[in-house]
Amino acid sequence: MIDTSRREIAPVEGRLGVLLVGLGAVATTYLAGVESVRRGLGKPIGSLIEMGTIRLGKRTDERAPAIRDFVPLTKPEDLVFGAWDPIPDDAYQSAKVAGVLAAEHIEPIAEFLQSIKPMPAVFDQEYVKRLTGTNVKSGETKWALAEQLREDIREFKSRNGCDRLVIVWCASTEVFIKQGPAHESLAAFEQAMRDSDPAIAPSMLYAWAALQEGVPFANGAPNLTVDTPALQQFASDRSVPICGKDFKTGQTMVKTVLSPMFKARMLGLSGWYSTNILGNRDGEVLDDPASFKTKEESKLGVLEHILQPSVYPDLYGDIYHKVRINYYPPRGDNKEGWDNIDFFGWLGYPMQIKVNFLCRDSILAAPLVHDLALFSDLAQRAKLGGIQEWLSFYFKSPMAGRSLTPEHDLFIQHTKLKNTLRWLMGEEQITHLGVEYYDYE
Ligand SMILES: NC(=O)c1ccc[n+]([C@@H]2O[C@H](COP(=O)([O-])OP(=O)(O)OC[C@H]3O[C@@H](n4cnc5c(N)ncnc54)[C@H](O)[C@@H]3O)[C@@H](O)[C@H]2O)c1
């Protein structure tokens, strides 16, 4: 039975420290956005928390408060920021290199951006081949490096007078790592840290340090990171929220909107070809086949999960799904994605849809960082430790409990998120049944 009484949520008092791993395009676009919003220079478009409303009760009740008024969430004014990056540029320099925002949006807040200087990172080129870092920690073992991260976390919290912290991974995509024995249990994981086992990537050290310090961890990249039995168990034992993986922003977001349409109408699919050109640093990192493999796995799983070929073999038993990312510097952060979808209808007659998405990657990702930081903190205050499946809405490869298949359909994810907010606040779930409005015998 689900407990429908209002959950106890610790008050949203004091300052929330948001620590970003990686101070690149996404992170600086997020930081510049929050500061612009705080100064009334821009609007937080794309943030469900800042722009969204939530319907409560019956349609005829006309109760639809803003989400930020309904649930106790930290206000943008109460956020403080820190970051780690192997590149020593402060947020101002990094935003200029990223080339996402125009000078008119960077210059008025230059001082704020300059004040965010990255702490030395735990970085190893073995895991991100196309980057060279100089602002890097050194330590005898991976364990020792993670202990330094713990110290950074504690020091940041006390220096900035924060009441609570959250960590969001906005750093590069690491090479593909298959889950193995080192990730099976916390004991094996910690032994592997002491042995500096290659199965322990830098991102896992940040995640472990966060959990040790009781800090929620959200993973915006497709790396394995916190999605292992060892760290999942650790997070639920410690009652610390975790979520991931890989911000759902561009082509995959469109995919998780269109594919449920085919399935809802029982239309078949024979092929889906997706290609992108992208010229930012993320594109450069993904040009390395090992990092691309991590991204590819994250992007490919979506159709399989939504379309359930084993349940509908006639419709989805034979799909050719291809995903390509091509590094093309002139395009910068303004990615262009093409999708060619071959589908079929009545008696198998073929049809096509073509999508040409001219998007701005970091503009789409920045509000997700914001929502994830605030919702992860809400989850922590509501004592929801472990995997936050209700935050699947934000991810390409949503984490789910061991025996569960993840939910990919954007609108089911959206309903799940809002119903979780209603459940937290002791409000009725909305099922969209609707019979209550009609006078049936
Ligand atoms: N923008 C989007 O729409 C989107 C969508 C999904 C996922 N992502 C992921 O978000 C991440 C960030 O994207 P971006 O465009 O900002 O990339 P970016 O290359 O501009 O920034 C990444 C930053 O991470 C730093 N970094 C690398 N390894 C690190 C480490 N071990 N510790 C600390 N910092 C480290 C890099 O030096 C770089 O400054 C990437 O993994 C990307 O795949 C982005």
Give keywords:
binds nicotinamide-adenine-dinucleotide, alpha/beta, 6-stranded parallel sheet, 4-stranded mixed sheet, single chain, 2 domains, Dihydrodipicolinate Reductase, domain 2, 441 residues, Rossmann fold, globular
Can you tell me about this structure?
The chain is built from 16 helices and ten strands. By secondary structure, it is an alpha/beta fold. The chain folds into two domains: 16-247 and 363-424, Rossmann fold (3-Layer(aba) Sandwich); 253-358, Dihydrodipicolinate Reductase, domain 2 (2-Layer Sandwich), CATH 3.30.360.10. The strands form two sheets. The chain has a six-stranded parallel sheet with strand order 2-1-3-4-5-10, with helices on both faces. Strand 8 (336-344) and strand 9 (350-358) form a beta hairpin. It is globular, with a radius of gyration of 22 Å. 46% of the residues are buried. Nicotinamide-adenine-dinucleotide (NAD) is lined by residues 21-27, 84-87, 98, 121-123, 128, 131, 170-173, 202, 220-221, 246-247, 249-250, 280-282, 285, 361-362, 364-365. The site of nicotinamide-adenine-dinucleotide has 36 residues, from helix 1, helix 12 and helix 15.
The mean pLDDT is 94
Q: What topology, given as strand order, has the largest sheet?
A: 2-1-3-4-5-10
Number of helices: 16
Total number of beta strands = 10
The top level CATH class name of the largest domain: Alpha Beta
Shape: globular
Helix percent band:
25-40%
CATH architecture of the largest domain: 3-Layer(aba) Sandwich
Strand coverage percent: 5-15%
Uncertain runs are none
Please, how many domains? 2
Major beta-sheet overview: 6 strands, parallel
What structural class results from the helix and strand content? alpha/beta
| CATH domain fold name of the largest domain | Rossmann fold
Question: Which ions, cofactors or small ligands are bound in this entry?
Answer: nicotinamide-adenine-dinucleotide
Distance between the termini: 29 Å
